Amino acid sequence: MPVTSYYSKTKRVTAYLLLFLQLFFPISVATSSVAYAIEQDNAVMMSDTFDGLNALIDTSPAPSAKPDGNSSSAGNSGSNNFTVQMPDGSEFGVMPADPGTGFISGQNGMPFPMSVSTLPDPAKPASRDNTVRTDDIFSALPTMGLPDISPEDEAAASEAKWAGNASQAGQILSSDNAVDASVGYARSLGENLLNQQVNDWLNQVGHARIQFGSNKTGDADLLIPLVDNPNSLLFSQFGIRANDERTTTNLGLGYRQYEEGWMWGLNSFYDYDITGSNSRVGVGGELWADYVKLAANGYFRVTDWHQSTLNEMRDYDERPANGFDVRAEGYLPDYPQLGAFAKYEQYFGDGISLAGTTSSGELKNNPSVSTVGISYTPFPLITFKGETSRGDSNDSKVGMELSYRFGVPLSQQLDTENVDLMRNLAGNRYDFVDRNYNIVMQYRKQELLRIGLPPELKGEAAQTLPVTASVLKAKYGLKSLRWSAPELEAQGGEIRQTGLTTVDITLPEYVFMTRTGAPQGYRVTAVGTDNEGNLSNTAEMWVNVIPSTETITKLTVTPNRELLANNSDQFTAVALLQSDTGGVLANKAVTFSVSGLKNSEGVTIFDTDGNSGQTLTVITGADGTATVKIISKSAGKGLLKAKMRNGNSRTEAIVFVADSSTAKIKTLELTQNKALANGQEKNIALTTVTDQFDNPVENFTLNARADNGATVVNATAQTDESGRMTTQFSSETAGDSKLVVEGAGTSKSVTAQFIADISTAKIQSVVITHDNATADGKAKNGVLVTVTDNRNNPLTGAPVTITVPGTARYQTQPVSGVTDSVVSYRWISPIPKLRRKIIPSALMTAVKHDN
């Protein structure tokens, strides 16, 4: 047996045992007492008690004495004669006061403990001592207001009680200080009678409570004492509560121990949700003192997951949540009607509802909530409460609690003075356990729709396999199924739905790789949708594809030579399909394609029926063959492939070449220009030749020539496989040179430049353009310098500098700059009549004057 199953069973047995104890044991113990208590007129009994007390301490005249010759005597000096009427049935009768002693003598000579000084003066009403003493309260606790003996035994006990009283009176009158003894006895009798009001409150036979909340909730609880001792209490508690969603019952058994002004207690409860058939057990602890209550509770589920009965949660399973809470409650000693309380709750698990109304959007994970509130009790019967919660559940509410105590007259429960008694340990003895009586629920989304698929299928490539999905659960029925196999479809497989739950899967081709023959797996999934729009689980299966035994045994291409890529010359290809047994395969699809050409779009494949395309699928005939023709506008070496849907294929090479009859020079461009005009450096041109479909023409003959004295290297040459030819040419003459390239029926030209070699620059000539200027610092002489390379090509842009000795203090400036091969300079002599000579050298010219 699984551990969880055993654990759940154990909890159920424990819960039912608690239920039995809490339900039947209290009933069996309390039935006779409760029945008898109902027959008693508690209000009349309490009224008689207070009437007797008033007869003793009120200011009304004393009752008339019974006639008795020995019942009276003269009073002492300063006192009036008087008589005291004893209770009916008393053996003492009327006892007159002894004038000598001031005591009242009984029929048997026993002094009655009362003197004139202790009796009330009619003119001076005596004040009442209503002090509630703890010792007196606890001495009266055990009776609960219910007799536990028969009427006959009660009569006998009454006679014994009065005999004891007579004996006590005799002892008092015979004592040395009879006056003090009499006074003490009277005071004790008065206090006991006054404490009867407290006893009537404490001697309850049960406690009932009814609560109404602002959120449309109602509760009813009943606490019944089972074993009631002065220092301990064993009790049972019953309850029922209802709201918009659930009706819950509670059965509890608790124990409370009183020690030195404190009460500690333990309790256990069985909570049952009638609406949803949920149950849990709870254990708790209490610690009380006057005006203060502390409590802690733990909650443990008994039932496990099952269908929720709430309409809002109809698609969810539910179970009680495990959790705990701690609580504190306190009251003001000076104003016990006003109280405050706080609590902290924590529950464990996902999908827990703490809100007043349950909805799927309000579910929380491991929620906690803190609550604070205040209460006001104008009199014991009614309490008003208000509280607010913060945390994973934010809520505020107010409510009224009606709390009725059996065995206590209604007038006492409407008395404001009795509220203080409720806040003391003696008065709250029968208060209810402070816990969460409503079962906090945990929810989980149901699997509304569940489907299944076979775990695995295996078949040959291109084989068609039927598949059926199983509907394992469908709360709202099955509306549709969505199938998915992207990898399978990417390889050419196909899924075709044949019914609501059935499909035909055409397996893709087998992809031949390194591991030839190994199965190739594809994942196939299905997701269902029900009639409410809910989605199912994702069911999956694996389809394994193995190579097919159907193959292309032969692929024949004719003619067996190169063809022109002129879009008219054509190859004929025939594919033969056979099975592994050698039989021909009719009505089988074969797809033809050509690859390897630079421009695959230029290829056209067509069959005898006029169908054409860059790829073409043809169905084999009765002889198992498929025939196509191939033409192309693209030249190059290609690979013709015939392929079956199962992945088996065969290839053959085909070659298309450019049509030189339509060749033309497409481009002529310089790849190198502006070579030095030294007869060694070369300009380079590139010629490209193509046919009418822009295919490069190989081995096409071209001739090249250049003007302005340029020399062409290899003036006649043929294009390479790319249809290109390179032409080089040189010159010793600087300037432009036109290159012309010609072929059969086509020609193009381009202009190149050759430049002078500045590395061989020299001053070709220096000519004075203006001389004999006056040396007045204003007039100017001028010179013209010409620069060329070693092949006398004028150098444009060569730098020329005219220098003058610094001591001569000449100033120079260019006239035409360095933009030409000839440059003009002027200079000025600031010293009058100073003459110098011009001395040229290398790339510069110095201008000087002799003295």
From TrEMBL:
Listed Pfam families: Big_1, IAT_beta
Start and end residues of each stretch annotated as Disordered: 58-100
Low complexity biased stretches: 69-81
InterPro entries associated with the record: Big_1_dom (IPR003344), IAT_beta (IPR024519), IAT_beta_sf (IPR038177), Ig-like_fold (IPR013783), Intimin-Invasin_domain (IPR051715), Invasin/intimin_cell_adhesion (IPR008964)
A Gene Ontology term for the protein's cellular component: cell outer membrane
Superkingdom field: Bacteria
Domain Big-1: 552-657, 665-755
Family: Belongs to the intimin/invasin family.
Protein name from the UniProt record: Big-1 domain-containing protein
Biological source species: Morganella psychrotolerans
